[in-house]
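thread from #wetlab-drylab

HS: before we spend reagent money on co-crystallization trials with guanine, can we at least see a predicted complex? here's what I'd submit
DV: go for it
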Amino acid sequence: MTNIIDGKLAAQQIREQLSAKVDAFVDVNGITPNLTVILVGDNPASQVYVRNKIRQTQQVGMISNEIKLADNVSQTEILAHIARLNADHNVHGILVQLPLPKHIDEHAILEAIEPHKDVDGFHALNSGKLFSGLPGGLVPCTPQGCVILAKKALGDNLSGKHAVVLGRSNIVGKPVAMLLLQQNCTVTIAHSRTENIAQVVRGADIVIAAVGIANFVKGDWIKPGATVIDVGINRIFDEQQDKYTLVGDVDFAEVVKVAGAITPVPGGVGPMTIACLLENTFLAATHSL
Ligand code: GUN
């Protein structure tokens, strides 16, 4: 039987443990960890993600504020908000929801966030620490969630496994490759220009799919028994159900018949991303003492 990895449950367990740690932290230090989220524009998916992030931050006993900015906001104005939050000792985590409108330089925004408050782990200092294996950095949330779920499926030990990462984004592909390397995996990063991608994936003990293409990974690409972690969240129109549904980058119906373990969409990596964000916010608060 294929193990359907329950990301919702794993995330709930993380939140329960964190909630106790937050209570103790507040008792001892008289400081409540604070995550402030900047949301630019009215992208419906981003609005849902931000709402969930804020609600769950509050549920574990931390403070969360939202700064909503119009789609036509200037880069200067966003930078002014970040400068103010960087200087505010009551704010421990700053998150700017992506994507940003086309007229905004995303790199300039992410690099302006004080690295100790960069709970997304996207600042060059944090990615530099991750790539060099230096301690004390904040690690991107989705990659962290992927590795936790892969370890759950494989009895905590990924050493020597061949991991194939599909996608080379700064948010998922590159950092998850580094985390898997830290776990002593043999790592291949495959992407849109990779030749014979199905053949490459067939060599994988662990597949991390983060390409943003609905149902991209097929059943006959998968080595029997492999662990498949699906990062994709794609909204497609389902003819049979006559409505829009969310599907991953993995063709679940096919792959579930071959894989040893697989994450569903929704209910797999998604909840873990937020759980890891909460952990990073708490970590940022502890580092602020
Ligand atoms: N948009 C999609 N994923 C993410 C994420 O992990 N962090 C931020 N800030 N924006 C996102």
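DV: The two ends are 48 Å apart (CA to CA).
HS: ok that's useful, forwarding to the group
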